[in-house]
Amino acid sequence: MDLQLKGKVVIVTGGSEGIGEGITRSLASEGAIPVIASRAVAASEQLVAELQDAGIPALFIGGDLSEPGRCHTVVEQTARRFGSIYGVVNNAGINDAIGLEKGGPDGFRSSLDKNLYHYYGLVHFALPYLKESRGAIVNISSKVALTGQGNTSGYAAAKGAQLALTREWAAELLPYGIRVNAVLPAEVMTPLYETWLKTAFKDPEAKKKEITARIPLEKRMTTKEEIADMVAFLLSPRSGHTTGQWVVVDGGYVHLDRSIT
Ligand code: NAP
């Protein structure tokens, strides 16, 4: 299937590591032009160089998206370089363990800075370009928004808000033909996931085994490529009548009957 993404400019936040890296690579393989907005300088420079060597005019824009003004800069620099923006993938985030007891109100606010406000900021500033291109938006949320996790109020609040905003923006942007969808990963091995395993559990390997044993489809984690290909499809004109949807890509982990596992 040709996803008809050739030459389309797509901003991917956190687009050089973990799930974001998968999304950038999937888009590039479809001929889209990925713009990586990330604070991970070395990984981003390396991936952009690799894509440029392969003839894809990818761009890296550095900086922390939770800093004021950063989202505006990302959109400005992208537009200056390419003259158009077709897609936004809001992906950058961190499960920062700000719970009810640990963190307090200031920690909670800071968690929303890291996980939520830049989702709004990027779409706000990119909107004039998305209107022109009749583009698409994908928000990467999390199973945590549906299931909870414990001890992560800030992250959970942000992930839930991303789902609400997916519906809200899908409604608001109907007149412009801009589609908005969310993808919800559950268990994907990435640098973020590895850190969570190592910091939250005494025996990370045993915990990983315990989790994967409960994933209904093939008793394995979802790959970042499986998340990325869904994102590329949802961005593409081939999913032209899909909007406001929450797509859970997790091997049935969240929704299938517990008695199966
Ligand atoms: P990851 O491995 O940590 O990769 C995220 C990338 O984004 C990193 O390069 C990170 O840079 C960058 N980043 C994070 N916050 C940023 C900010 N404020 N400004 C600029 N760059 C920033 O994470 P991941 O596991 O791929 O997660 C990606 C998304 O999927 C997140 O929204 C997460 O909530 C969601 N998700 C993941 C899983 C999973 O199983 N992995 C499950 C559910 C949801 P640093 O390296 O400097 O932090």
Description:
This protein has helices at 18-29, 41-53, 70-82, 104-133, 144-147, 153-172, 191-200, 204-212, 224-235, and strands at 9-13, 33-38, 59-62, 87-90, 136-140, 179-185, 246-249. The mean pLDDT is 97. With 261 residues, it is an alpha/beta fold. It has a seven-stranded parallel sheet, sandwiched between helices. It has one domain (9-188, 224-260): 3-Layer(aba) Sandwich (Rossmann fold), CATH 3.40.50.720. It has nine helices and seven strands, in the order βαβαβαβαβααβαααβ. β1 (9-13), α1 and β2 (33-38) form a beta-alpha-beta unit. NADP nicotinamide-adenine-dinucleotide phosphate binds next to α1 and α7.
Write the layout of secondary structure elements.
Elements (H helix, E strand, L loop, with lengths): L8 E5 L4 H12 L3 E6 L2 H13 L5 E4 L7 H13 L4 E4 L13 H30 L2 E5 L3 H4 L5 H20 L6 E7 L5 H10 L3 H9 L11 H12 L10 E4 L12
The protein binds NADP nicotinamide-adenine-dinucleotide phosphate.
